[in-house]
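dumping this here so i dont lose it
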């Protein structure tokens, strides 16, 4: 028998315990902070997790803190967390936090609207012990937009605070039973309870990180009517880095998975650094990216090329299927109404195999791909013996280019580029015309050809 305790959302805010009474768990964290707590230092700029004006920090153990976008985080997600806003950095005596002082002394503010978000991103960066390297600083700030273009002094301030010690904050005690908030927000604590809830509430939306679903509450102002929050299910949060395979639970965040994926597949370092921002990667999950089934999602082409399988769970048991069979239509998957994604599994590269990936978008940072490509090849004595080529943004689903694969193995790259038109009939939209997308995909295969010809030389194709 399942025990579902009606309860209030509880978390720590700026070091003090909070028991939320009244507001719906579907309220965004940003709206609650501003409208119910009067903490208006946290701003709304875009309402979709792009500009960073709403940045707050989740404080974890061992002084490791992570920035998130409060505009797309639902209040119910914050249960059991420790949250700090810009107001929480000021000392009881009114003294500025060293991060705030560094930005002030560097003249790193102009109109000031975006400044609290930069402060909180700098605070999270300082806690991680990262060195003051430009690549890391730019990555830490990629999710913050300064409309006054005052980046140089902000970067100067980031150099000053790199490695600054910050305090740890323990979250509220773990719950012993699974809470239900307002009768519409379920937070199961086991896989058995999750699949039972899924069977009972097939129309409820599954919430993991909420970096996409949160837009319903923020930008659209039409929050979901019922949610099953899966982030606290232990079976969905496992990571296995074996000798031959990697496996990740559906709720493993990008921030957690990224070091493991990059170690196994080094070309993902640059690719994943362009997948959202640190704020997005803190909460966003790969399982959510798969379940969303967007044709322009960044990870599906990569996982298709890497021969990923997905495990689906329900009360009836578990089943596994190749990822290419999981996507069945535009934003449609093979998930039955009573199923959830439990995990996904992918093999490491075998000797003689190589992997590459590319993302083309209208801007470098904080943008969805126009075309994404990923390629896993087995090469022996200079000859390609096996090929898996996958693309996003080219069809209603992420998809392998099977005609191009066959042509590549038989007749080489020129034939593979020509065969792309047999695999894909892209649409015209504001991100690019069909002709543009086909040309981009062909150019990406040319880039891959150059990489294989001169593996030690970095290849940049400026025409892309």
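and the seq i came up w/
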């Amino acid at each position: 028998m399942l025990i579902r305790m009606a309860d209030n959302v509880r978390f720590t805010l700026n070091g003090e315990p909070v028991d939320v009474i009244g507001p719906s768990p579907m309220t965004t964290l940003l709206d609650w902070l501003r409208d119910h707590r009067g903490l208006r230092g946290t701003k709304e700029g875009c309402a979709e997790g792009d500009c960073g004006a709403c940045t707050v920090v989740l404080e974890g153990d061992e002084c490791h803190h992570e920035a998130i976008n409060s505009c797309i985080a639902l209040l119910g997600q914050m249960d059991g967390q420790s949250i700090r806003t810009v107001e929480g950095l000021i000392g009881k005596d009114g003294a500025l936090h060293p991060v705030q002082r560094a930005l002030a002394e560097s003249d790193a503010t102009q109109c000031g609207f975006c400044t609290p978000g930069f402060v909180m991103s700098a605070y999270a960066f300082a806690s991680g012990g990262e060195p003051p390297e430009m690549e890391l600083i730019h990555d830490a700030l990629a999710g913050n937009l300064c409309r006054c273009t005052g980046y140089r002094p902000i970067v100067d301030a980031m150099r000053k605070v790199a490695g600054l010690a910050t305090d740890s904050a323990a979250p509220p005690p773990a719950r012993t039973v699974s809470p239900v908030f307002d009768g519409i927000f379920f937070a199961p604590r086991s896989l058995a309870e999750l699949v039972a809830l899924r069977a009972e509430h097939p129309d409820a939306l599954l919430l993991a990180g909420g970096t996409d679903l949160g837009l319903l509450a923020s930008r659209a102002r039409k929050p979901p009517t019922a949610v099953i929050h899966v982030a606290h299910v232990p079976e969905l949060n496992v990571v296995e880095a074996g000798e031959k395979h990697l496996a990740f639970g559906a709720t493993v965040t990008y921030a957690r998975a990224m070091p493991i994926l990059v170690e196994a597949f080094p070309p993902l370092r640059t690719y994943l650094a362009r997948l959202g921002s640190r704020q997005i990667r803190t909460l966003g999950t790969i399982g959510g990216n798969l379940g969303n089934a967007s044709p322009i999602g960044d990870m599906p082409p990569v996982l298709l090329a890497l021969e990923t399988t997905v495990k689906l769970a329900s009360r009836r048991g578990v089943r596994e299927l190749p990822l290419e069979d999981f996507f069945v239509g535009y934003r449609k998957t093979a998930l039955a109404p009573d199923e959830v994604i439990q995990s996904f599994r992918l093999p490491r590269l075998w000797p003689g195999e190589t992997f590459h990936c590319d993302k083309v978008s209208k801007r470098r940072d904080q943008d969805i791909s126009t075309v994404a490509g990923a390629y896993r090849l087995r090469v022996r004595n200079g000859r390609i013996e096996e090929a898996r080529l996958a693309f996003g943004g080219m069809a209603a689903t992420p998809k392998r280019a099977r005609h191009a694969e066959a042509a590549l193995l038989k007749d080489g790259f020129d034939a593979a580029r020509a065969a792309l038109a047999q695999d894909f009939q892209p649409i015209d939209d504001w991100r690019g015309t069909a002709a543009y997308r086909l040309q981009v995909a062909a150019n990406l295969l040319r880039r891959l050809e150059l990489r294989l010809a001169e593996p030690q030389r970095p290849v940049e194709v400026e025409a892309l």
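The chain has two domains: 7-161, 235-453.
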